[in-house]
Amino acid sequence: MIFFHTLLALAATLLLLPTQIHAATKYKGFSMGANTKTGACKSQADWEADFRAIKSWGKGFNCIRLYASSDCGTLANAVPAAQAVGFKLLVGVWATDAGHFGAEKAALLSAIQRFGTAWIAGVSVGSEDLYRKDISPQQLANQIYDVRGMVRQFNKSIQVGHTDTWTAWVDGANDVATKACDMVIINGFPYWQGVPIRDAIKQKTFQNSVWDTKRHIQAFAPNMPFWVGETGWPTQGDHFGGAAPAKTNANNYYNNAACWMFGNINLVGAFYFTAFDTPTSSGDHGGVEKYFGIADSNRKLKWTLAC
Ligand SMILES: *[C@@H]1O[C@H](CO)[C@@H](O)[C@H](O)[C@H]1NC(C)=O
């Protein structure tokens, strides 16, 4: 009997352990664009309604990754909304072209002058520019140094890096840009690799993209912090190779890949793509880009969140 009770206690301890430790990334949330479901630029009230919906899901989401600073008045509208809800923001500064980069920097400067820096989780200069070959790695490095110089005048602990696909991060030609980063932000989509959901889960396709990136970068930057900028699975749209959009597949992907990344203490931050469906996104591939939300465009969750 005593043995039985000991076993029960042990079982209870093991079951409780994960929730007691609260092992998780410091920052947990979604990568989100600046347009409403009708395609309009989000107002401060729109951003706040988005953030409150995400907070109401009760899973500890505390941070949002943005793509732009000046476009759609993103920072001017999103920062006060984040402050009202208690969320932090991973700022996005578009790196191309030169005129756009200048406007993005000016919008970040203006947001810091208005709102201080306590709302900043970090700054990403550029998003998938190396993957698209829109900028040379050396030019991107110069712009990362440029933005770091600007923000560090206000707060010396702000981390400035870049977001790109795992395939760009493991390409040695881009190491010069990587070396300019305080942190590396990784995007990986087994769906866009054409991997069937069952294989993506079993072979840990997404986890392997994170591990491959770390292995490549730790060889020359052993203390580099890693974040995930985007991963996700669509619920509608065309098949891509062996990858099929479906609610069951997206739910399965979320429970496996997303829950793994959100619970990974070796990642500083992790962002799922995305919170809400975006009906005005491109119609290519059967409109698949519209359907990466874990909630529909009316902010209603498509499945019960496991994490
Ligand atoms: C300085 O930046 C860090 C990191 O972004 C932030 O957590 C902290 O709150 C900022 N400090 C102030 C005084 O705003």
Secondary structure layout plus pairing:
Elements: H1 2-21, E1 27-32, H2 44-56, E2 63-66, H3 74-85, E3 88-93, H4 98-115, E4 120-127, H5 129-132, H6 137-152, E5 160-165, H7 166-169, H8 175-178, E6 184-187, H9 197-202, H10 205-218, E7 226-230, H11 247-262, E8 269-272, H12 284-287
Parallel strand pairs: 1-2, 1-8, 2-3, 3-4, 4-5, 5-6, 6-7
The structure holds 2-acetamido-2-deoxy-beta-D-glucopyranose (NAG).
2-acetamido-2-deoxy-beta-D-glucopyranose is lined by residues 116-118, 120, 155, 157-158.
Mean pLDDT: 94
CATH hierarchy class name: Alpha Beta
Portion in beta strands: 5-15%
**H and E order:** HEHEHEHEHHEHHEHHEHEH
How much helical structure, as a percent, in the residues?
Answer: 40-55%
Form type = globular
Radius of gyration: 20 Å
Question: What's the CATH topology name?
Answer: TIM Barrel
Main beta sheet: strand number and arrangement? 8 strands, parallel
Number of helices: 12
Ligand inventory reads: 2-acetamido-2-deoxy-beta-D-glucopyranose
CATH architecture: Alpha-Beta Barrel
Please, what is the CATH homologous superfamily?
Glycosidases
Structural class designation: alpha/beta
Subcellular location: Cell membrane; Secreted, Cell wall
Membrane topology: Lipid-anchor; GPI-anchor
Protein name: Probable glucan endo-1,3-beta-glucosidase eglC
Function: Glucanases play a role in cell expansion during growth, in cell-cell fusion during mating, and in spore release during sporulation. This enzyme may be involved in beta-glucan degradation and also function biosynthetically as a transglycosylase.
